[in-house]
Each structure stands twice: as structure tokens, then as C-alpha cells.
Amino acid sequence: MTQSNNDDELEFRQLMADVKQLRQDTISPPPRRTKKRSDRIVQQQKHAQREADFFFSDTFEAHFTDTDKISWLSDTAPADAARRLKRGQMQPDLMLDLHGMTQAEAKIELAALMTAARRQRVQCVSVMTGLGTGVLKNRVPHWLVQHPDVQAFCQAPKGWGGRSALLVLLTIDEEI
């Protein structure tokens, strides 16, 4: 070490001679209240599951004539609704991607989509099931037929997901 460094160190030690080391007084934050929050989340999930189960029965099997290009039109739907959906003339305002979900999760998300669409007064939504093993691709149309707000649905045009998605026409409730 050089002389100037030694002088600096000596001067520093002299200045710090009266300094006493502080004892660490770390204050631990209060424990988080995750139990109440998790209870609330569990209750919300149970409510969502009950709502999904109310609309979407797994035992109901609708009859579709052509399973390759699936479509359905309710008795109350406008006559040109299915045609407009198939041609892609109606663009979805909300989209739901069910890739990688279980049937139970997909039911909950589908019920949430229907609720959101109703609140936002959306007429057309897209539900992407994906191809995968085909479980959701086969179940979702049977669930949609059961929902009172669904007027029609069909396989989406290529621009909106093609074989792995459905375009769904919904009733817009005037009273909301």
C-alpha cells in the first residue's frame, strides 16, 4: 500500500473510533391473511362451478347431422344468422381459448364468457377448443346447445380459427 492510502485508512479509523455498532432491529411484517382470501377464492370457484354445472350438463347429447362442419340454429334465431356466421360476416367481440383446459375448467370459463358477453351486450363470441384429442371439441357444442342465450353457432371460418373454433351468436337481452 502507498503512504497516502495508509494515511486515509488511519484517518478513517480515527474518525470512526467513537462509533458504536448498531444491533439489527429488523421488524418482521405481520403474517399475511391468506386464509380469508383463499376461502373467498374457493367460494368464488365453487359458485362458478355450480353456475357452469347449471347450464352445461355432461349427460346431455345433442344430435348434429354433420360432425365435420358442426353448426346449430335455435328455433328463435334469425333465419340468416347461421349463414352470416358461416360466411364470417359477424366478427366476434370476445374470444375464449380453451387450449389445455380440463372439462371442468372449460365449463367454468365458458360460463364466465357467457356472463361477460351478456353484461357487455355482445352478440358474437368465438370459442377456440383446439384440435388436440378432441375432448373439448366434441363437448363444447353439446354445452352451447344447452345455454339459453345461445341462438346459433358454427365452425369458424379459417380467419377465426377454422376447425378448432366455433363462432357463437348470442341473444342480447334488452333489459340489462
From TrEMBL:
It comes from Neiella litorisoli. Associates with collided ribosomes, but not with correctly translating polysomes. Keywords: Endonuclease, Hydrolase, Nuclease, RNA-binding, rRNA-binding. One of its GO terms (biological process) is rescue of stalled ribosome. Residues 96-171 form the Smr domain. Belongs to the SmrB family. The keyword Glycoprotein does not apply. PANTHER family: DNA ENDONUCLEASE SMRA-RELATED (PTHR35562), UPF0115 PROTEIN YFCN (PTHR35562:SF1). Acts as a ribosome collision sensor. Detects stalled/collided disomes (pairs of ribosomes where the leading ribosome is stalled and a second ribosome has collided with it) and endonucleolytically cleaves mRNA at the 5' boundary of the stalled ribosome. Stalled/collided disomes form a new interface (primarily via the 30S subunits) that binds SmrB. Cleaved mRNA becomes available for tmRNA ligation, leading to ribosomal subunit dissociation and rescue of stalled ribosomes. GO terms for molecular function: hydrolase activity; RNA endonuclease activity; rRNA binding. SMART domains: SMR. It comes from the Bacteria. This is Ribosome rescue factor SmrB. Its EC number is 3.1.-.-. Residues 20-41 are annotated as: Disordered.
